[in-house]
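so ive been stuck on this for like two days lol. basically i have the seq below and the ligand is S-adenosylmethionine, smiles is in there too. i just want the complex predicted, nothing fancy, no docking runs or whatever. if the output looks off dont worry ill sanity check it later, just need somthing to start from for the group meeting slides
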Amino acid sequence: MKSIVRTNFDDSVSAYDAYERRTGRFTALARLLAAEMSARADGPFESVLDAGAGTGVSTRIFADRSRRTVALDFSREMLREVESAPRVEADFDTLPFVDGCFDGVAFTASLFLVPDPSVATREAARVVRSDGVVGAVAPLGWTDADGTDIFDGLARESRSPAGVDDVETAFEDEFAVTTGTWRFATTAESVRRFHAIPAMAARLYPKLAIEERVARARDLLDSLDGTVEQRWRWIVGVAE
Ligand SMILES: C[S@@+](CC[C@H](N)C(=O)[O-])C[C@H]1O[C@@H](n2cnc3c(N)ncnc32)[C@H](O)[C@@H]1O
């Protein structure tokens, strides 16, 4: 499963960056997460691990707010794009760092991409210092004006390897936790653009080859129109 996720992101660089240029969604999520993490920190962050850094969208945000940010990802092609921090190619389930060496660890839209988020959460708890802060953001999906999940009326679900509840439970096992929900007004067109990223189209059609997967996602979402609300859950824990 993990090697499939890695390959999907290796094949997603240009579509991911095109989506981000258009929507700024991951920049917004990283900014909001950084603010929630800072609010629970005992001082400014000296060092932050950006776990699942992708092309560096979240890395830029954390690098602006700390003296030393490290970008870690297991997709070599995504990581190649990162310019604002030192890069480490690794799986966040087995972090190549000594205990207690970061003030903060951030999983911006990444921790729900593993089948068992408790493994990486334990690793984050190990590499963060005592009173350090760990944060994650995970997707709650899209609803229409009536509050109905837009995928209820379609033949597929847009599903992650792990659910938001799995991420939250993993955090509660390791940290003192605070959570909340962010809501973004967006459009049906933006939902289509999101699923034009091969790694995101895999949420709908995990078994299909890339081109077919993206084409099927486009057909499935073709009839959506109007404005929709996208919701993301944030989860922040303080290490004891
Ligand atoms: C949706 S992208 C988010 C990237 C970035 N944080 C941002 O805000 O734009 C998720 C990233 O997590 C990475 N990822 C997923 N599972 C991982 C794992 N087990 N170890 C390291 N990186 C992982 C993927 O390769 C991908 O680049």
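Residues 55 and 114 are 18 Å apart (CA to CA). Residues 25-39 form the longest helix (15 residues).
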